[in-house]
Amino acid sequence: MTNKARQYKPSTVRRLDTLSGNECSGPDCEKALVAKDGVSIISKICHIEAASSDGPRYNPQMSDDERRHFNNLILLCDECHTIIDNIENEALYPVDLLQEWKANHHSKITQRLQARKSLLKLAIDAIADGNFEGGNEEEESTSPYQIDKKIKYNAVVRNRPLIDEYKVYYNQLSSLYDELESYGSFKKDKLLRNIRRIYLKVKGNYISSSDNEIESIKDNADNIIEDIEDILINTDGLAAGNCDEDISFGISVVMVDAFMRCKILEEPLVQ
């Protein structure tokens, strides 16, 4: 039987690839993660806290969804992966050290990506022009809500770091929307409408007519976010093989922005 902790979602793999910059996350390693033929993948997805009880740094309190989530994975070359997963080296490579490796490496790569406005533009074009069938559309606010309150209200846990990391691009994306609208483009409205349509469809997969809707959403908020990300990753023009892997950076920014504009998950009730 396949270990669910090793069944990675496409969006997770894509995001790991993007934030690797084709470099091992080991701080003293200079190995590329794609072979010299430019095609063969030689990277290894490593669990920071092990996928199974016989692995290093195993945490019995984790669920398999948490074990396979982006937060618990680091992309390494084969040599570094073998070294840190050698059970005899477990004390040398504790969880906090590997988390530090990952954070430092991703910060370095993100600095390279954030100046590439074209990544956001490509994501906007593809999502706005996509044909997404879904549930009934609703009129919603496009103004950002109080993020911490919305995260708490919807019980987002696994994906809070994603939101915290990418919410800082709200103003940059707003400027890009304003620029597009100055040329008579309706990309912003189309994009937000499509993302809302995707959300309603995905939400429907987790809710039945007899459910308490908000409680079902809270129970599945992280799954809903990850399902939406997978759909966006596979949008025509963005699917693997049709564009640069870095596009997942643009998708993450656009998706978190849509969350902030209350197109994904529910707006807290006014007290």
List the keywords.
single chain; 271 residues; mainly alpha; 2 domains; two-stranded antiparallel ribbon; 2 strands; 50% helix; globular
In short:
This protein is mainly alpha-helical. 50% of the residues lie in helices and 4% in strands. The chain has a two-stranded antiparallel ribbon.
Written as H for each helix and E for each strand, in order along the chain, the element string is HEHEHHHHHHHHH
Record the strand order, biggest sheet. Answer: 1-2
Quaternary class: single chain
How many separate domains?
2
Which secondary structure elements does this structure contain, and how are they paired or packed?
Blueprint: H1 10-20, E1 43-47, H2 64-67, E2 73-77, H3 78-85, H4 95-113, H5 117-128, H6 147-154, H7 160-166, H8 170-182, H9 187-204, H10 213-233, H11 247-260
Antiparallel strand pairs: 1-2
Helix pairs in contact: 1-10, 1-11, 5-9, 5-11, 9-10, 10-11
Structural commentary:
This protein is mostly helical and 271 residues long. 50% of the residues lie in helices and 4% in strands. The chain folds into two domains: 4-113, no CATH class; 117-260, no CATH class. The chain has eleven helices and two strands, in the order αβαβααααααααα. Strands 1-2 form a two-stranded antiparallel sheet. Helix 9 (187-204) crosses helix 10. It is globular, with a radius of gyration of 19 Å. It starts with 9 loop residues before the first helix and ends in an 11-residue tail after the last helix. The mean pLDDT is 87.
